[in-house]
Specification:
about 160 residues; mainly beta
């Protein structure tokens, strides 16, 4: 599937995946690992020990394990959505994904975990709908998911 981008900067691919040394920090202090400007405000990602916290203008909106990384930032017409990769599964199913959606009114919504274990994806957006494609993984065939900022659906 091919995706076209109407405006430069509509989809921002993060050049570096958030990578941290595992284990708690000796002094227990937070470490800032990402800072993004979004339609909803300033998003900061901080690491403390084994957890990552996502703060929107200083208020917590999502908490996850340290093995979570921001794969893509989609700057859509009505909201921004971050595609997060979580290395939460066992060896036979290493990666799952979820969206963190930020709206101009300051609200934040996280989707359920989705995917079918493959950590390499093809993702793009058309209008306010994001499509994520997964290649075959082990005995699993390809899969396609869509997300409109509210509804997550597997379409293949």
């Amino acid at each position: 599937m091919t995706f076209s981008v109407k405006r430069f900067g509509e989809i921002l691919i993060l050049a570096a995946v958030l990578a941290l040394t595992p284990g708690p920090r000796a002094n227990g202090a937070d470490k800032e690992v990402a800072l993004l400007q979004t339609k909803a405000g300033e998003l900061r990602v901080r690491q403390r020990g084994q957890e990552r916290m996502f703060y929107l203008d200083g208020r917590p909106v999502h908490q996850t394990a340290q093995d979570t990384s921001i794969q893509r930032v989609f700057r859509l017409n009505t909201h921004d959505s971050l595609l997060l990769k979580e290395l939460a599964g066992p060896v036979y199913c290493p990666a799952r994904f979820r969206f963190l959606t930020l709206r101009p009114d300051g609200s934040a919504v996280t989707s359920l975990l989705f995917g079918h274990c493959h950590y390499k994806i093809n993702a793009g957006a058309k209008g306010d709908v994001i499509t994520v494609e997964f290649k075959p993984f082990g005995d699993l065939g390809p899969a396609v998911w869509t997300y409109d900022g509210r509804n997550l659906k597997q379409v293949q």
